[in-house]
Amino acid sequence: MIACAPRPPHDVLVTGRDYAFEAPDTVPSGPVVFRYRNAGKVRHELIVLRLTEGASSSAVVDAMKADSGTRALREPGAGVLFADPGESNKLGIAMDLIAGRKYLLVCRFRDEKDKPPHDTMGMYKLVVAH
Question: Does 5 fall in a domain?
Fold first, then answer.
């Protein structure tokens, strides 16, 4: 039997802007590394969450708009990267993505204590592994 070498992880570049993410709508399943660059004028973070099987995109969007969180819609575990304005995080979030599953990219930072979290202003994105 011939053993196959594991495939190297696919890099997925995510760019944060003031108050949105630029990333592909679909990403390859299997090993990936999310890379993060902040092209905005304020500090942002990238959190990557795997949503529970069957979680609808509309339920996630409704939870973001209501600022009620997505705890019931996501699986345990997450990865987080931070970047100051104009900088890239030198690390990455390594994950093994499951084909057909949805992943949520989100920033929960606030510009000030009394300001809303960035995700409630639109800084989130759903991606699907294929």
Answer: no
Domain holding 38, by residue range, is 10-129
Structure token pair of residue 62:
């409704």
CATH number at residue 38: 2.60.40.420
User: Which amino acid makes up residue 31?
Assistant: P
Residue 120 carries which DSSP code?
Answer: G
**Is residue 70 assigned to a domain?**
yes
Tens of pLDDT, residues 6-49:
778 899 999 999 999 999 999 999 999 999 999 999 999 999 98
- How far, in Å, CA of 31 to CA of 53, rounded? 19
- How many other β-carbons are positioned within 10 Å of the β-carbon of residue 23? 20
Strand partners, 81: 46
- Whole-prediction pTM value? 0.85
